[in-house]
Write a structure and sequence with these properties.
10 helices, 2 domains, Jelly Rolls, globular, alpha+beta, Env_Response_Regulators
């Protein structure tokens, strides 16, 4: 028998009947590690909204923290506005990610969250979640794990921007997207970029022209196939062994189109990029994509 509260929530949420127990990305979200009874308690506080259309915002900088948002489908970008009035993108959030953690300290959102495509989210009232986590150690631990993951991601981004060149930044970005898609059960080899090249450049501290030029370079080197927003990793990159230069040289004729002449120095400079895309091949092998 369905509790009355659950029935009311289904009506309020516009008929979205998918609950935590049935959600395909629950292992990436708050419900992970919770038992059936705990899932039921969490499920009763979640509000499932109607789809958010492309360009709509979940919250704006300065808004009071009322809820955290778990993305069920789609892509959300977070960004701030600098003192000069420029937009600075701080993250791209996929299904299974939680948005709004950065507001917990001051209880106000320091950034904006905007849909890059039609998206579905679960709204989780923060005060209720905070109270519930005090009674459920598993829930509290999972929230801490998710917050820790965000901190680690921020640290990785600082390292990327401070230590890597333009080519390595873009390669790492594409590889990271590929890995995240694999975690969600999608192909790590073929996927669609929901963000524009301008968004990618803004996030990586590069110009649109640089992003386009590097994607073209990756395509000419047969690392990627790029068709508009669609990215495909070339299967032959599986043959490159962990970026070892000697192996790369032996496979040079197979990996690089004959019409392109690339010097050994340039090959060495590309080695770190090849390592990243070789890892994509490993992901594909593990996921049978």
């Amino acid at each position: 028998m369905i509790p009355e509260k659950r029935v009311i929530r289904r009506i309020q949420s516009g008929g979205c009947a998918i609950h935590c127990q049935d959600c395909s990305i629950s292992q990436l979200c708050i419900p992970f590690t919770l038992n059936a009874h705990e899932l039921d308690q969490l499920d009763n506080i979640i509000e499932r909204k109607k789809p958010i259309q492309k360009g709509q915002t979940l919250f704006k900088a300065g808004d009071e923290l009322k809820s955290l948002y778990a993305i069920r489908s789609g892509t959300i970008k977070s960004y701030t506005i600098t003192e000069q009035g420029d937009e600075q993108i701080t993250g791209f959030h996929l299904a299974g990610d939680l948005v709004g953690f950065d507001a917990i300290g001051g209880l106000k959102h320091p950034s904006f969250a905007q849909a890059l495509e039609t998206s579905m989210v679960c709204e989780i009232p923060f005060e209720t979640l905070d109270d519930l986590s005090g009674k459920m150690p598993n829930l509290r631990q999972q929230i801490m794990r998710l917050m820790s993951g965000e901190i680690k991601g921020d640290q990785d981004m600082i390292l990327l921007l401070s230590k890597k060149n333009a080519e390595e930044r873009l390669a790492a970005f594409v590889y990271n997207l590929s890995r995240r898609f694999a975690e969600r059960g999608f192909s790590p080899r073929e996927f669609r970029l929901t963000m524009t090249r301008g968004d990618i450049g803004n996030y990586l501290g590069l110009t649109v022209e640089t992003i386009s030029r590097l994607l073209g370079r990756f395509q000419k080197s047969e690392i990627l196939s790029v068709k508009g927003k669609y990215i495909t990793h070339r299967k032959r990159r599986r043959a490159v062994g962990a970026g070892r230069y000697a192996a790369h040289q032996r496979d040079r004729q197979r990996l690089i189109p004959r019409r392109i002449t690339i010097s050994p120095k340039l090959l060495i400079r590309h080695a770190s990029v090849v390592v990243l895309f070789f890892n994509v091949g490993l992901l594909c092998k593990l996921t049978d994509c």
